[in-house]
Amino acid sequence: MNIEAKRSNITDEILNKNQDMLFQAKMLHKGPVHLLFPQEMIENIKKIKKIFIDTELEIKIFFAYKSNSKIPFAKQAKKEGIFIDVASENELSSALSAGFIGSEIECTGPKNNSFLTLAIHHQCLISVDSLEEIKSISKLTEQIGKKVEILIRLNDLESKDRNILIKRSRFGISKNDLEKAYNILKKSNWINLKGFHFHSDGYDIETKSGFLSEMIEITQRAWKDEGLSPTILNMGGSWRNPILKNSKNWSKFIEKMGEEIIKGKNTLVWGNNFYGMKKNERGRISGRENAIMKSYESNIEKDLKNLVSNDSLLGRKISSIINENMFELAIEPGFSLLDGCAMTITEIADVKKSDKDVYHIVIDANIYNLSTAKMFEIIADPVLVKPTNNKNNKKCEAFIFGNLCTEDDVIIKRKIFLDKIPEKGDLICFLNTAAYNTNFEDASPILHEKGKSFCIVKKNNKFLLIDEKKYNPYEK
C-alpha cells in the first residue's frame, strides 16, 4: 500500500522535470542534503493573513524559529512582514541578523540570564515561564535601565464546556500563582504585562477554543481587578496541515496493521514498531487513535476560521469579543508556515535482499540527520530517483535503514513499496521535511556527516541552487 506525501508545486516540478539537479546537489556533500524552498513560505503566510483580514481581527503571526532555524526561512518571514518566536539566545542572535528588531521578536522557552539580558537590551517580548523568571527580569531590567513587555504562559487552562484540562506541562505557571505574579509586576517600574500565552499540542480546535475562552476571561479580570492592561492572547503553536496526499491510505494501513497484531502476524513493519499500537488484555487494539493522528489531518486555515467564528462558549463569536475588547490574537506556527518548503536527498550506500525477497536499503543518513530519533518520525513514502538512463522497472518491497551501527536506526518503521529495484548510488528523497526533520535533532554520531542545506530559488522560470547563507529574498 502506497502512502504518498503531499507535494508542493516546486517539489513536483523538481521531481518530474529537474531530477538532474538532485544528483548535482547530492554531489556537493557526503551526507544528507536538505533542499530549502523559502519562497514557498510566501503563499503559506498569505493564506493565514487572509483569514484575519476577512474577520478584521488583529493578529500577530510569530514564525516558530525552532521548527527550522536555517536563516533563509527567518529572512523570508521578515520580508513577508510577520514576527518571529525564538527559543534560545543563539536563535535570538540569528533572528537579529536576519533583520528583525526587538519589537518583532518573542522569546520563549527556558532562559538563562544571558538570554534574558540580550532580550531586554533589544526590548523583545518575553513569554515568562515561571515566577522566578519574572523576578530575574525585574532585577535585570532595573540594572540595564530598559523597560520590557512580557506574556505570562499558563499551564492549567480548562476547556470548561468539555471539562478538559490542558495536559500537564513543565512550562508556564498555574492560574493559582497569578496573584503572586501580579504582585511582582506591580512592584516593578520596568515590566509591562502585555498578555497571556498557552500551548496546546494534540487538541482539536473546539478544545483549543475552550482554552482561549478561559484566557479571555483571565485577561478581562486582569484589567478589571488588577488595574493591568494586557491585550495579547497567544495561542502558541501546533498549527498543522495534512502531510499526506490521501490520509485515508494511512487509516487503511493502521486498520490492516491492527488486524495483524490481533492475529500475531507482522508483514508490514520492522520488528515490533507498531506505531504505539498493541493488543490489550481484552484482546483488542490499544493506541489506534494516536497512530491515526500521526497523519495530521488538521488544516490551519479551516481551524482558524472555526476558532474565530466559535460562539458556543461565551455566547457570542470569539472574534467579536476579541475585537470589542481591542485584544490581539497571536499564534506561533511552524509546521504550517513551512508546509512544502523542503525536501531531503540521501544516497543509497548499500542494498541487500532478505530471505523474504524484501530489500534492505541503507542510506548515507540516520535517524538524527532526519530528526526521527525522538520526536518527528516520517510516515510518508520517500521517492526513489534513479539516473535517467536506468531501464529497471521491476517492483519490490523494502525497508529503509540508516548508517549507524545500532539496531534502532530505522528511518521508516513500515515496509515501503517501490516501482523499481533500488541500487547503490540511487537517491532516496524524503518530501516536506522543512519543519523539524531537517535540523532539530541533527547530530554526527560515530563522526558521520551532519546534513547540509542549500536553497533552491526560481528566477526567470529556472531553478537555481545557492548556498543557504547567500539567500536574499529581496533579490529579483
Q: What report would you give on this structure?
A:
This protein is of the alpha/beta class and 476 residues long. The protein folds into 3 domains: 9-37 and 340-462, Beta Barrel (Lyase, Ornithine Decarboxylase, Chain A, domain 1), CATH 2.40.37.10; 39-241 and 298-331, Alanine racemase (TIM Barrel, Alpha-Beta Barrel), CATH 3.20.20; 247-292, no CATH class. 30% of the residues lie in helices and 22% in strands. It contains 13 helices and 21 strands. Strands 1, 14, 15, 16, 17, 18, 19, 20 and 21 form a 9-stranded mixed β-sheet that branches.
In short:
The protein is an alpha/beta fold and 476 residues long.
Helices and strands, with pairings:
Blueprint: H1 9-17, H2 19-26, E1 33-36, H3 41-55, E2 59-64, H4 71-79, E3 83-86, H5 89-97, E4 105-107, H6 113-121, E5 125-128, H7 131-144, E6 148-153, E7 158-159, E8 164-165, H8 178-187, E9 191-197, H9 205-226, E10 232-234, H10 247-263, E11 278-279, E12 285-286, H11 288-293, H12 300-309, H13 318-324, E13 328-331, E14 342-353, E15 358-363, E16 383-385, E17 396-401, E18 410-418, E19 427-431, E20 452-459, E21 462-467
Helix pairs in contact: 1-2, 3-12, 6-7, 7-8, 9-12
